[in-house]
Amino acid sequence: MPYHEFQCSKCIPERKQHAVVKGEGEDLTSALPLGYLNTIPGTISERGCAYCGAKHVIGTPMKDVIHLSHGPIGCTYDTWQTKRYISDNDNFQIKYTFATDMKEKHIVFGAEKQLKQSIIESFKACPHIKRMSIYQTCASALIGDDIEAVAQEVMEEMPDVDIFVCNSPGFGGPSQSGGHHKINIAWLNQKVGTVEPDIKSDYVINYVGEYNIQGDQEVMIDYFNRMGVQVLATFTGNGSYDDLCSMHGAHLNVLECARSAEYICNELRRRYGTPRLDIDGFGFEPLGTSLKKIALFFGIEERAQKIIDEETARWKPELDWYNVRLKDKKVCLWPGGSKLWHWAHVIHDEMGMDVVSVYTKFGHQGDMEKGIARCEQGALAIDDPNELEGLEAMENLQPDIILTGKRPGEVAKKIRVPYLNAHGYHNGPWKGWEGWVRFARDIYNAIYSPIHKLSLLDISKDEIPTDKGFETQR
Ligand code: CFM
Description:
This protein has 474 residues and is an alpha/beta fold. The chain is built from 18 helices and 16 strands. The chain has helices at residues 50-59, 92-95, 104-109, 112-125, 138-143, 147-157, 176-190, 216-226, 241-245, 258-272, 284-298, 301-326, 339-351, 365-374, 387-397, 406-414, 432-448, 451-454, and strands at 19-21, 66-70, 98-99, 131-136, 162-166, 204-210, 230-236, 252-255, 276-278, 330-333, 354-360, 380-383, 401-404, 419-421, 463-466, 469-472. The strands form 4 sheets. A 6-stranded mixed sheet has the order 1-12-11-10-13-14, with helices on both faces. Strands 3-2-4-5 form a 4-stranded parallel sheet, with helices on both faces. Strands 7-6-8-9 form a 4-stranded parallel sheet, with helices on both faces. The mean pLDDT is 94. FE-MO-S cluster (CFM) is lined by residues 53, 57, 176, 211, 213, 257, 259-260, 335-339, 423.
């Protein structure tokens, strides 16, 4: 598996080991791109920071919580349009965002007083919410504010509130992945075991590493409930703070995004003996297998089979319609972390598409290993790409569509490659049988939309787009 050298990165020789092409009959172990290292100086990374990974990926999907950033106001922004982790309590957690709004004077004199005032003001402004997460930022970490002590003081003065503190400043790791780890462990240490679980079934799971992007969690919960399985807590999409305090009571941890949440599963296994079971919620076949694995654990296989049969019968004809039209279309799978391996094989097997490239911004080598194992021969795999490498790859590979984030997506649009938002989705949910069909529909609409031709239109010449290019009407 030869390393791939980008023309645009010749001046950064260290980049060469961060991209490979999957060769014929090659063994995965012979070459993997380097991964989860500090970004190389001279390359412009698309990564986020460890504060973002803790707060915006894992913390804020919790629904019944005031999420307060202890830092400058700029650290706060990330709402509906950037992370669509909806909830069934009217989306409180994405409608409102809170910050202590640190200024220069706080850096000089400390911001603990400001923090205490902000906590109290926030609770007063939202009297129906009694739970809070406070997120340290680079600024508050550097001046050494003792957030725990302030939180403790408030909890003593306001006995009906409970506060979780996450110390994961932006510099706490090479990427957002460092923050995933920190908040996993912080939650486990501070909160798990503090609320008694409310057990209502013989089959009780936590659904872990699921963030309810546009309703993914709700689709999956429906299948679990139809199987008679109780979901004690979801870590963390549409999850409630108190339910998550009782995670220790589940019989099984069902893990979806292993990249962001394997840490808490592994520690729950070590501390409480709860087994970990990894699943895939995307694609008919992987989802069916996943439900069967859960059912097998509890000895209720026939319940899973019934759902698989019903859902397949309902949705397969629609998926087939898209499969015919998406067959052999070339796709670049360029998400942030685990979606490359959640999608790589099944988008080929079930939609007929050809995966020409996979990348990960912050995944570890294990993610790349799974992604490369599941994608097509000849695919280009890139770790932590920079913008120019993305452009060069698109020019060389000529994909029909890329599935990626907003920033590389905007670059793709400039060279008229259709893009779908792999993070917040276009028209989700994309999990579940119905979600997978919706995903296929979004891909179909993106590829077949005339918008990319229309964007070339020169109105002053009265041009009209045709299959062959442009014709002037005059
Ligand atoms: Fe897991 Fe995620 Fe992802 Fe992730 Fe993310 Fe995300 Fe993603 Mo954006 S937790 S690794 S840090 S599946 S926010 S819901 S879409 S990059 S591939």
